[in-house]
Structures are given as structure tokens and as C-alpha cells.
Amino acid sequence: WHYLLELDPDIALLQEVNAVPPAVTREYACLRTRAMGMTAFQNFHTVILVRGEIGEPVPLNGSQAWIDDILATYAGNLPSRVVHPRGRPPVKVIAAYSPPWQIPWHYFEGADVDALRPTQQHAVWLVDLLLAALEHRPPDPEESWIIAGDLNLSETFDHDRRYAGGNGAWLERMRSLGLV
Q1: CA 105 to chain centre
Q2: How far apart are CA 42 and CA 29, in angstroms?
Q3: For a Cys staple, 98 with which of 16, 93, 108, 126, CB 3.0–4.6 Å?
Q4: At what angle do helices 167-176 and 126-136 cross, to 10 degrees?
Q5: CA 80 to chain centre
Q6: Which helix (H) or strand (E) holds 66?
Q7: What would the pLDDT profile of 24-52 be if each residue is shown by its tens digit?
């Protein structure tokens, strides 16, 4: 934690955090949300820190009820808020923890998921649902956004035959929303 305090960021979005020490909470407003695992809550949190104030939630919802249901189940993995750093304009933030496993099929049994995922993928990941929510309600280019964290995707995975690919397609979807 002393490295974080040395870096002195106005905003920090953290994943897989067990506890935030008092030395940090004295300097930062802190929101901790418990991350969901495959079938139960994880033993760690997703965290938003800001030197200033943490404001209202940024709604994340998709175009269909089943997307909203899954996003609600995994809300602790995607805390989203408007933050107000001292002396700076407000910023919409999402501290993203997209687990390295697919969303269990029972959540969307019978739903058409093809539009959610890159063609190379046979699974639905939490990052697919995050992008669906952002595409449903695109960020205003006049607003400041930070979406950061552990998305468990990288274009380098596309060059490894052990992975199904499609990571570049996710990044392109983010780019099309003005987020890269």
C-alpha cells in the first residue's frame, strides 16, 4: 500500500483486494464491493478510491432483462460511480473485475447471445455483458470516463492457440465507443 500512497493518484481502481488499510482510507474516499465468483462471493473486493468524494452509481444495464439480471448478480465485480476528485471535474468510473471463467450457461439459457461475443468465442464472459451495457447506453464523449481493472483479456491471447481468440474484437468494441 505504501507504493500506492507514493504514486499519489487522484483515482485508483483496484481488484482482488482483501482489506484497505487505515493509512489509505485516511487519504481516500473508499468504496469496496464484494466480487462474485462462479457460484458464490469471492473472499476479496473490487475497490474505488478517490481523493475527493464518491458519488452516485453509474447505471449498467443492457437491452434485455437477462443481461440486467446477470449484471446485478455480478455488481460487486463492476462497481461504477461518478467520482468527484478534489479540484477536478467529475469522472465516471468502473472498477472492472471480469473473472477468468465464463458466465455459467444457466443464467442465459434460451437467450440469443451471439451478438454479445466475438465470433471466435463459444462462451459468454462478464466483459461481454459490460460491453453490452456500455453499447446500450454509450458514454457521452463530453464526459470523462475511466474503465480499468482486470478484464482478463489481451490481444496477446489471440496469438496463442490455447485460447479461442477474440480479444482484439473486444478491444475494438471498446474503441468504437471511444473508450480506448
Answers
A1: 20
A2: 23
A3: 126
A4: 20
A5: 8
A6: helix 65-73
A7: 999 999 999 999 887 788 899 999 999 99
Mean pLDDT calculated for residue range 71-87 = 96
| 3-class DSSP state of 14 | strand
- Residue 107 pLDDT exceeds 60: yes
Phi-psi group of 62: left, alpha or beta (phi > 0 → left; psi -120 to 50 → alpha; rest → beta):
beta
Angle at CA 153, nearest 5°, toward 143 and 54? Answer: 35
64 neighbors 112 (Cβ within 8 angstroms)? no
Q: Which of 6, 13, 169, 5 is nearest to 93 (CA)?
A: 13
Q: Are 42 and 36 in contact (CB under 8 A)?
A: yes
Going by C-alpha positions, the residue among 15, 16, 51 that lies closest to residue 30 is 51
In three-state secondary structure terms, 49 is strand
The pLDDT of residue 153: 67
Measured CA angle at 59 (ends 34, 15), to 5 deg:
30
Residue 70, SS3 per DSSP? helix
Q: Alpha-carbon distance 58 to 67, whole Å? A: 16
Cα(75)–Cα(156) distance, integer angstroms: 28
